[in-house]
Amino acid sequence: MAPINGFILCLAYILGLLATGIPWRIGGTSPSGLGILALAIGAGFLVPRRWRTGPPLKIWLAAGFIGLLASVYLQIRVPQPGARDISRFLADSDASRQAQTVTVWGRVDSTPRLTRSQQAQFWLQVTQVDEVTAQSRSAQGGQSATGKLYVTTPLLQATGLHEGQPITVTGSLYSPQPALNPSGFDFRAYLAQEGGFAGLKGKKVTLRSSSKSTQWGWWAVRQRIVRSQIRWLGSPEGPLVSSMVLGGRVVDLPYEVKDEFTQIGLSHALAASGFQTSLILSAVLALTRKLSAKAKLIIGIGSLLIFVCLTGIQPAVLRAAVMGVGALLSLVTERKTKPLGSLLATAVILLIFNPLWIWNLGFQLSLLATLGLMVTVPPLMKQMDWLPPTIASVLAVPIAAYIWTLPLQLCAFGLVSPYSIVVNVLTTPLIVVISVGGVVSALVGLAYPLAGSALAWLLYYPTHLLIAIVNGFGQLPGNAFAVGRITVLQLVLLYGLIGLVWCHRWWQKRWWVAGCVALSLIILPAWQVASSLFRITILATGGEPVLVAQERGKVGLINSGTETTAGLTILPFLRQQGINHIDWAIDTQPSAKNQPGWSQILNQIPIKTLYGRSQPQPASQLAELVKARQGDYKPLAVGEAVQSGSLAFQLLNEELSIWQLQINQEIWLLLSDLKSSDQSSLVALKQLPATTQVIWWTGERLSSDLLKTLQPKVAIASARSIDTDTAEQLRQNKTQVYTVGQEGALQWTPKGGFERAVEVSPKDVSF
């Protein structure tokens, strides 16, 4: 078969998988595969007229059918819960309305890892589940069960657990929650990708000593390596070295270090893939240079297989390993291989093994970065031929990878790391030294841990310097500039421009024109939207009222929530919207627990003016925090109004923390947790506005007198539930009620009114 024919067939398979992401549906079925088939048939009739020596009609028809089969194959491979899956236990009971205490039997399926909330997390392969009653606190009627269960427990409960160990876990079984905010983390989709459909908040873990436990496994080898390297290096240097050898997915690297590396554009340094594979192959070829070709191949493949087993089944690692096997075959058989063909064949092989990886961001970035190194580094080296080859290579590699991965990063995160290339250039020598030294110390540590620790200790200063460089650049202003998430159409157009510069001579000579067009595709739509947008977004935070106001380039924020809310809900939303500054913010209930939340936001995004109540101690702490970030803190007196465009806000009652917002002549009232006596006092004192269109509160009971006085048209609860009596009164008053904490974020625009920011069906809501 001609190379071009193989290229078209492989590309058709990949396009068939990608087409399943098209949201177009007919009768609940995606016609994406049929679209690929129709496109291929059209190409088969039209292309040969213009390309006489190109592929014949039968190749185009075959490509169309391959694309159709690929889309069907992916749908077949989508994980589904089995008949006895642990998640069925939720569906068959009252779990959608109340939590269950259960005892689950199974085997540990992954090494426990530390979560951001300092809990231990691991996967459990389930064999049985028993419900625990409140009366007896004992198992009632054990049922056989299957499937994977996402388990979190207190850290001490998971200490000493390892893969293959039989255990029982008692805790609360729950259904994973979908994304409730734009750009929010879809926990349900994440678990489904891993083949899990339920979670367990474990309280007690019990070892089943009567069952046979696996005393050896790859987990033991990893543990021996990691302990050897941490012994004298300490933390975070030790875990960082281990991550650069084994990959960040199997090593408990502190989240602070992970976040800093990711934010500055060095997350690839924590992923075991191509560089480690190159080291292994180089060592194997050097040690087996006197052996036969067959022996070299066997030893090389065996070494790569061991590496994959140590790092775990990860898309990027498998991509590097498969390409490494291809390189070995070409060296042994003394045949030349085409790098692009090898990369495409590797992608198809892996996507046949697991087609769901087509939507794995790590897999996508790995392929694009590798493609960039293959096709863009040589021309860049040619342009920099006036530099020494080593320096030119150090510059060309990060630039090429940055160009090819940037559009996808913008589509996924909406962030640009301006210092990424500079940091990559500065840290490349350190990464090479640490990676090589880490591999050597790991091998020695397997045989003699003390010697491995001594070798790892020699890497302390390079590792410490690497962390210092990353931390230093992370403190610089604008280290992560938000441009907003680009659309799929923009993504396709950007890669189309990159492809033109790669393939077309005219564009190669005028690459700067393509660069200007690319910048226009990113900046102009974002500017146009920001300059005309007027939208209020109430985020789903599970109880804490948080609002983001966007009006023609001006941005306001009400409340920061806790540190977790700020870091995992507010900041991702602001980045998705391309927001790099906040003009005004309000802290409606300043207290010590809110300081970390505001600090988290201020470390990433400057706030021009922060308004709050004039409470002494918390307010002064918050004022110092804002001033340290070059902002201004202003305590508001009762009745003092502040205007910002079409929005105005004022504090009505300082003691009870009652705030009024006026948006486009509509009155919104923000109520705190009010006791019955406080509500009666408010009504008696007549401190409330005469007309109120919207009330926004935390879902607690509201008295009938207060509701009669306010008579709102819309009631928004930031909690996951509303007091039943209050909900009934609102229904009788024909008030539109939104439960943001349960139903997802809410958005308001002058023309559209209130609309759901995300679609969450009742069955998707986690109890």
Structure, described:
With 767 residues, the chain is of the alpha/beta class. The chain folds into five domains: 3-77; 86-215, Nucleic acid-binding proteins (OB fold (Dihydrolipoamide Acetyltransferase, E2P), Beta Barrel), CATH 2.40.50.140; 232-482, no CATH class; 491-529, no CATH class; 533-764, Ribonuclease Z/Hydroxyacylglutathione hydrolase-like (Metallo-beta-lactamase, Chain A, 4-Layer Sandwich), CATH 3.60.15.10. Helix content is 50%, strand content 18%. It contains 29 helices and 24 strands. The chain has an eight-stranded mixed sheet with strand order 15-14-13-12-11-10-23-24, covered by helices on one side. It has a seven-stranded mixed sheet with strand order 16-17-18-19-20-21-22. It has a five-stranded mixed barrel with strand order 1-3-5-7-6. Strand 12, helix 23 (563-576) and strand 13 (582-587) form a beta-alpha-beta unit. The longest helix has 28 residues, at 420-447. The protein is globular, with a radius of gyration of 29 Å. The protein starts with a helix and ends in an 11-residue tail after the last strand. Residues 25-30, 93-97, 135-140 and 762-767 have low confidence and may be disordered.
How many beta-strand segments? 24
Helix content: 40-55%
Q: Tell me the distance between the termini.
A: 56 Å
Q: What does the largest sheet look like?
A: 8 strands, mixed
Question: What assembly state would you assign to the polypeptide chains in this entry?
Answer: single chain
